[in-house]
Amino acid sequence: MTRALTPLILLLALASAASAQAPAADGSRVEDTLRAGRHAGQFAIGMSAWPVGSYCSGPMSAAMQQVHPREVLRRVQLAARCGVRLVLVPPRRLLTEGREANGLFSVESAKRLTDQFARELPPDTLRKYRSTILGFNLADDYGCTRCWGGKAITQAQIGEWAAYARTKLPGVPLGVRVVPEWVARDSTLAPLLDYAWAQYHTRKGDAKSFYDKAATTSQRLGLRVIMGVNVKDCYGVGTDPCSAEDLVRYGRMALGHPASCAFINWRYDEGTYGRPEMREVWQGLVEQARKRGAEECRREGAAG
Fold first, then answer.
1. How many Cβ atoms are within 10 Å of 53's Cβ, its own excluded?
2. How far apart are CA 297 and CA 193, in angstroms?
3. Distance between CA 277 and CA 243 in Å, rounded?
4. Which domain does 65 fall in, by range?
5. Is 251 among the domain residues?
6. Distance (Å, rounded) from C-alpha 282 to C-alpha 295?
7. What angle, 0 to 180 degrees and rounded to 10, lies between the N-to-C axes of helices 69-82 and 107-120?
8. CA-CA distance, 88 to 101, in Å (whole number)?
């Protein structure tokens, strides 16, 4: 009896292996679906500019990505298939007057760009990919005058844009890539947002104090906070990438902070990431994230 069954068992095993590699009905692969399932309950961990080609093959479960409206739906669909959650970043040039690189920020340009995103991501699509879109950053580097045509972006401008985006991208968490103290300077801004950001480098002082302050301020404002490390400029703007030891130290602190809703870091660089000791650190951080359940970066009580 055992000998008679052996060929049948072998055939079934081969068929199972083949089906695991076969394309699914929507063009994705079964292994992508399995990976997405593994990441579904995992705390979001990732980097900005994470390679699109690594969505399905890499260890990260999140990424902060600059995406043009014409590419956004395909990008979100790919991320969903691979189990990667996205913080979407609008192209900076399209937020300026005259679409100039490093031009003046324009609320009207931001609204027009939001309309373009809304056409690609209508409400039913946003509902479908609710768990994939971790957040939508409303620009960045607000105080960098050379980045924005010689004039800093104000809280009032971000507030006007946020109010508009709420109506056009219902249910999408809206946030700012800046510490919550910046938000606190205008009492009207926080209610329009879902999250702020706490990205550490050593010139910001003691790491624990930095993250704790961001957590306290965010809680007072009713916001969530994304925490991370400036892996590229670990010791201040224009300095060196983090050493493996420092990435372990600061990464574990941010990833394990109870107030953090995601662990997103600046930024991916193949030369740094590809070093064996750095890959080992990242794998350890990924394992830590797997022990922590997934969270939303949506403010308490927000619709969506």
1. 9
2. 10
3. 9
4. 41-290
5. yes
6. 20
7. 50
8. 19
| Cβ neighbours for 108, distance < 8 A, ≥ 6 positions apart | none
> What does the alpha-carbon distance between residue 47 and residue 193 come to, in Å, rounded to a whole number?
22
Question: Which amino acid, residue 234?
Answer: C
Q: What is the pLDDT of residues 96-115, one digit of tens each?
A: 999 998 999 999 999 999 99
pLDDT at 26 over 60: no
What does the pLDDT read at residue 116? 98
CB 54 within 8 A of CB 78: no
Tokens encoding 124: 């039913």
Q: Which residues contact 35 (CB under 8 A, 6 or more apart)?
A: 56, 82, 83
**Total number of domains in the chain:** 1
What is the C-alpha to C-alpha distance for residues 50 and 72, in angstroms, rounded to an integer? Answer: 15
Query: Does residue 33 fall inside a structural domain?
Result: no
- Is 301 within the bounds of a domain? no
Residue ranges of E strands in the chain? 45-48, 62-66, 85-89, 133-140, 174-177, 195-200, 224-229, 260-265
Is residue 228 a part of any domain in this protein?
A: yes
* CB-based contact 51:78 (threshold 8 Å): no
CATH code for position 161: 3.20.20.80
Could you give the percent of the chain with pLDDT greater than 90?
Answer: 84
CA distance 48 to 31: 24
**Average pLDDT of the chain, as a whole number:** 90
Residues 103 and 149: beta-carbon distance below 8 Å: yes
Gap between the Cα atoms of 205 and 227, Å rounded: 15
State how far the alpha carbon of 51 is from the alpha carbons of 59, 63, 108, 228, in Å: 12, 9, 31, 18
Within its chain, how far is the Cα of 41 from the centroid? 16
